[in-house]
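With this grant's support, we have paired protein sequences with backbone structure tokens. One protein thus recorded is set out beneath this paragraph:

_____
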Amino acid sequence: MSDCNNLDILKKSSLFSGLLTDDEQYIMSRISHFHLRKGAQLFKIGDVAERFYYIKEGSIRVFRTKADGSTEELALFTAQDLLGEFDFARHARYDATALAREDTELVCFPALGLSLDDLKKEKPDTVSRILLKSLSMIANRLRSTQKLISENTTWVQELRRRAYEDPGTGLWNRAFLEEEMRRELQAPTTLILMKPDRFKILVDSLGHSAGDEAMMRIAGILKSLVRQFGRGWAVRFKSNEVGLCLPRCGAETGREYAERLWNLINLIPPIKADTGFPGFSFTATVVYGVWPDLADDWDFLVKQQYAFMLEQWQAGGNRVVPFPENIKTKVPNNG
């Protein structure tokens, strides 16, 4: 089956509608084609729905076995049907069994042997967009049966967590910052951005595991500062670039927390010198600014402050710098 046909198949699911070209190319590399012989089991009651299926040829019957041993037929899926996408979106456990009624050819996502968590480590942005589509699909499905989705439903909370959580650190991810943060803004909100200095030296010398361990330490510091403040979000923007969003926090308190963050990074125990490794001490570049004092548009402030942080980091780092008021940010007029 060609990649074009594969893509057309997957786009039958609302989970994959409107994704970026890069997303589509990645998804194409993470699907499986397989066959089930007549009578073979696709899934059983209690299995976690870790993938969903498209039936290319053949058919699948879904049923429950009653206490008296008789079966209750629930559905019959035939060629060109999607199977299990709603359960997959909820990451639910199946409440029925599925068997091939005849020799059947299927396409599934994620590929056999892979879980969505595996894919999230490889391509977190793509998986976040799929999980957000899941929320939308579930909401539409429930509304179509006159039921409103509840933000307090346990599995909805879990799905939101998986969509917006960085798998390496447990911090909120950039998708949360870009897609949800503006709804949570409460003026004034302080944005603190931080990038560890010379981090590439650490990774190049001791490997990615050393970098991952350091990022876990940094994530712990960020989470502790959010707890101290009593509200807000610790976010991983990209690679080793992280930050804090502190609602109802003005410039003076924002400066205090930026300095706390800088001091705590400096207090991470140095990594001792070893054969061929000169040792490593942790320092960081920290920049802070306040919305809406510096810009009415939150997204534009994030972009400008991020660029300013990189400038400070490239200039030598190891400093705490306020985003300058004389660079009063204004959304450019595209006209």
